[in-house]
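Schema walk-through. Below, the input block comes first and the output block second. Nothing else is stored per chain. Lengths vary across the set, and this one has 113 residues.
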Amino acid sequence: EVQLVESGGGSVQAGGSLRLSCTASGFTFHDSDMGWYRQAPGNECEFVSTISSDGSTYFSQSVKGRFTISQDNAKNPVYLQMNSLKPEDTAVYYCDRSPGSCRGQGTQVTVPS
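--- output ---
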């Protein structure tokens, strides 16, 4: 059974930083494109970032320049480093194989306005 577990969320002041982690069981990240997605209350699931198996990275316009995605190797977590956080970044963040969606437990990120 494939399981992805997100962690690292929390509440942080605007301008602050958080690093989210995604660990997997039941499969390895090797040869898998991985992505981060988020969903704010009342909103649809939104693409945030992906990292391809070849290391290529992609970001939504709303987070480009502020977020980075990384993975050290096929067995390590996939990270989402979030800097210069804004209130509009408040959401539950999910990791999934790309293309993916907002499913699973997720981790809450709150940036009070």
